[in-house]
Specification:
Length: about 425
């Protein structure tokens, strides 16, 4: 398939001569990158928390505060990552991010003080939660337009599988080799998984190898956030400056804060919270195994609905289920209660994750997506950075997590309203009507 009529006399590059659309190859590597981001995600840190408290001698609040500032640092770094992605392309950025992620894990293996722990948190959050979450979603959004929401759901399978695998993997490594050696082994796992596939298979865009998005051979109708338009009309791309002057951008950033803040907070303290209820560490970690498959289901539900319902309505709906998840967590008294909570939370986090990945190209196009997502991810990562602190303070001040969980339930309704106020995604001169 060729990108344009003008190119039909030119042979496609060898990499594009697959019997199927080459974007699916890129998507597989993106899913692998999503899986590899796990060492920098909260669910992996969760199983290390008690080891850090016992070995380094810091309180839960102290570690949560260090995690906060490490994550805030990562939120600043992600702006640079997004801009660099537009300039250097995904192949270079994936390799560099993976190398740094491994080095961050190595650093954590010998952390013995507050400042060394902060540096480790900052590196791991910048590369794991930040770069290796932003880059895969952005490159998939560039390679797919009509099939974008479902392609993002397929890509996110990597992260969903990792959320079930890595807590068990980390806990097993800690039990067998100790938490310091566990970080070393995690570093080599990341390097072995992602560096070579990124070098061999990732390309910047379909146009860069003579193809069109979705594998189309000619311009055809594109479905984007429920609106059917011609390709040329639906993919009007905003610059970063234009997007930042749109009120839709800021409403959507705020709409994603509950998912980031609450999801990170409960995940960070989940093992500690459930062990405080009398469950074993392995039983508490086992909730992540329930979380992972339901997250996958949520992603595909969102991917299916995104072509039929405007994404802002999906984001607003997900806020109600965040509140339901917190009520279930407050009521946990038996292990099956914990698994029910994990199933509902996983379903909703997958649903919201896919929705908030698909919303940015739907509103702002593909050409400057890295830079725009660098800014949007800054807001969501800053919210995630704050997530663990309310629960840590509640525990240290009151001896239970209850007050923190009640506080969490106040944010989602506001985020739901913000999603509804974002307006419809537009592409032509109507786009300026959304500008502030």
């Amino acid at each position: 398939m060729r990108a344009t009529t003008d190119n039909q006399t030119k042979p496609l590059p060898r990499v594009a001569r697959t019997p199927f659309y080459y974007g699916w190859v890129v998507l597989v590597v993106a899913a692998l990158a999503s899986f590899t981001s796990a060492p920098g995600q909260t669910y992996t840190f969760s199983v290390f928390q008690n080891s850090l408290i016992d070995d380094i001698g810091l309180s839960s609040t102290a570690i949560s505060t260090l995690y906060l500032f490490g994550s805030l640092t990562a939120a600043l770094v992600i702006i640079v990552v997004g801009r660099s992605l537009d300039i250097l392309g995904p192949r270079i950025m994936l390799v560099v991010s993976t190398l740094l992620l491994g080095l961050g894990a190595m650093w954590l293996s010998w952390a013995d003080s507050a400042w060394t722990l902060f540096v480790g948190f900052a590196i791991m959050r910048s590369m794991g939660q930040g770069a290796l979450s932003l880059i895969p979603a952005t490159v998939v959004s560039v390679w797919f337009v009509r099939k974008r929401a479902m392609a993002l759901a397929l890509m996110a399978l990597g992260g969903a599988v990792a959320s079930g695998f890595y807590p068990i993997y980390g806990a097993t490594l800690i039990e067998e080799f100790g938490w310091r050696t566990a970080w070393v082994m995690i570093a080599f796992t990341a390097w072995g998984l992602l560096i070579l596939p990124s070098v061999l298979f990732v390309r910047t865009s379909p146009e860069s190898i003579g193809l069109l998005p979705d594998g189309d051979s000619t311009e055809r109708d594109q479905v984007d956030d429920g609106a059917v338009t011609k390709t040329g009309e639906s993919e009007r791309s905003w610059t970063l400056n234009e997007a930042m002057h749109s009120r839709a951008l800021w409403f959507l950033i705020f709409a994603g804060t509950a998912q980031s803040l609450v999801g990170t907070g409960v995940t960070f303290h989940q093992v500690s919270y459930l062990t405080s209820k009398g469950f074993t560490s392995s039983g508490a970690a086992g909730v992540f195994v329930v979380f992972a498959p339901t997250m996958i289901v949520g992603q595909f539900v969102s991917g299916y609905l995104a072509g039929r319902i405007q994404i802002r309505y999906l984001i607003a709906t997900g806020q109600g289920f965040i509140v339901v998840s917190m009520l279930l967590l407050l009521g946990v008294s038996e292990l099956w209660h914990a698994y029910l909570y994990g199933a509902v939370l996983g379903l909703n986090m997958g649903f919201l994750m896919n929705s908030t990945q698909a919303v940015w190209p739907a509103y702002f196009g593909r050409n400057h997506l890295g830079s725009i997502r660098g800014v949007t991810n800054f807001g969501m990562m800053a919210a995630a950075a704050l997530g663990p602190l309310p629960l840590a303070l509640a525990l240290d001040l009151t001896g239970t997590y209850t007050a923190g969980l009640l506080l969490y339930m106040m944010l989602p309704p506001l985020c739901g309203v913000a999603a509804l106020m974002a307006g419809n995604p537009t592409s032509s001169s109507r786009a300026r009507a959304l500008a502030a």
